[in-house]
Amino acid sequence: MNAFHLLKTCAAIAAASVLLVACGGGNDDDPTPSNEPGVLTVTNATVSGLNGVYGNGALNLTDVSKQNPIGSVPELCAFRFDGANKVGSSATAFGDIRYRPDVTKLYQAFLTFDGKEYASSDDTDTAVVRESDQVRLTGKTLTATDGSAATLRVTGIVPMRPNRPMGC
User: Fold this and answer.
1) Is the pTM of this model over 0.85?
2) Which of 63, 81, 135, 136 shows a CA-CA span of 20 to 30 A to 118?
């Protein structure tokens, strides 16, 4: 291979790498398949049709990352999941889970059921069980983030990937 072809090949590889990173490829921003089962049961939903079981197999997960934002927000461990399909329906659930390092309760949870986001910023009815690689919710009440005051209760398990940063 002559120098000209080598230069063209290197330039093409560099351009492809830049595009891959710019388009979101090659990172862990999107949940990927896991072998970890998870299930969420929604009850007492004020929005018709949301009650039911979400999760009929393994969930897709991101790695847990440790984030230390500037300002008054504390250092957090965070991950996202999706692929929690509602049993007997085309509805799906996904979420963003946040907890403090070395703490056994959630800091925040944002869960979306059939396109409507619900959140909680208190740690009641939650557990971060590191030795089981799980986050557990026990009748956790979540409120819609759209200002509608809609609520629902969630009971279930969301798995975490085992390769977490120290404290997470």
Assistant:
1) no
2) 63
Supply angle C-alpha 119, 123, 128, rounded to 5.
100
Which H or E run includes 81? strand 76-85
Q: How many CB atoms lie within 10 A of CB 51?
A: 15
- Which three-class secondary structure state does DSSP give residue 101? coil
C-alpha separations of 78 from 40, 91, 93 in Å: 19, 24, 17
Q: What is the pLDDT of residues 132-167, one digit of tens each?
A: 999 999 999 999 999 999 999 999 999 999 999 999
Give pLDDT, residue 161.
Answer: 97
Q: Which tokens go with 46?
A: 């004020």
Contact (CB, 8 A) for 39 and 155: no
The pLDDT tens digits for 41-73 are 999 999 989 999 999 889 999 999 999 878 777
Opening angle at CA 112, ends 33 and 60, nearest 5: 5
How many other C-beta atoms lie within 10 A of the C-beta of residue 115?
8
Residue 28 has a pLDDT of 52
Residues 6+ apart with CB under 8 A from 66: 75, 76, 77, 101, 165, 166, 167, 168
